[in-house]
């Protein structure tokens, strides 16, 4: 492809970051050794990681000048990969996209074909990007709990409940027939009730001092908070229950003991969506297509043009955004 196109270019001068929509040439896009695929990007989405990368130097982005955007969806226009054909609709999340490899805040992106998932039949591009990394992470967490023996009808605690991962976890768990206990800092918000949550607890209940073992309270949990919260969850999970740990908004430490594991057989399962093998990714996307109601997604989406990304990144860092901020490239 020879034409130039628009991309958000992040650069650093005198320790200051500067992001601007610029006209760039296709030859700036990175090429891996083989299997390169050029995608005409239709949508990207603004994640916390992107906001951090756009506002704090050196935290997420590996080098400058750089095209950020950790995920994108679009149509394949050139392909050197055997399984990905011109015209396929694909989604890319993880693998260092928008961190080490130029990302999706761009009208075109180029990545190795084995980083791409073809959209499940019946899922459109806007819905796919609205689900994106948080939806995928929630689905992978539920897959892991089910693999550990957790079954519909049981009670699953979801922490960081009103966040991206939390909201998708609740929506999916309810759809699958689980009872949900939501732990949140916003107990008065009607939002969690609208997602079908039956029991809401204040997140401060799980933030206090950790006892090695406490009353068995939850069958399972999906935790995006970490720290004392995760340690308290482990102490309060029932015999042979399972906990999926996927985030650290409350802290990266884990002040627990071996007692929940050796006296109750509790399973702690780590969830990583970034380097997840392709077979599990594809399976998760197919389940997401089956389980997520597009009407619910539509209510979550706030759509912005590319040049509004820097302003929204700052608002996200101030905690002012809710739902999914979808970036329109076309
Ligand atoms: N493992 C992976 O592959 C993967 C993928 C995606 C995200 N993540 C991680 O998962 C976490 C959540 O991501 P997200 O996209 O859902 O973020 P998010 O949309 O910002 O939501 C996080 C939620 O956590 C709660 N929260 C915020 N600060 C807190 C604090 N100091 N202590 C306790 N709770 C707090 C809030 O919910 P309430 O007000 O309802 O409590 C907030 O809405 C992040 O750490 C992210 O890095 C990991």
From TrEMBL:
Protein name per the record: MDR family oxidoreductase
Domain Enoyl reductase (ER) residues, every copy: 13-327
CDD domains (alphabetical): MDR_yhdh
Gene Ontology MF term list: oxidoreductase activity
NCBIfam families found in the cross-reference section: oxido_YhdH (TIGR02823)
Record's keyword annotation contains Oxidoreductase: yes
Record carries keyword Oxidoreductase: yes
Superkingdom assignment: Bacteria
Listed EC numbers: 1.-.-.-
UniProt keyword annotations, A-Z: Oxidoreductase
Enzyme superclass (EC): oxidoreductase
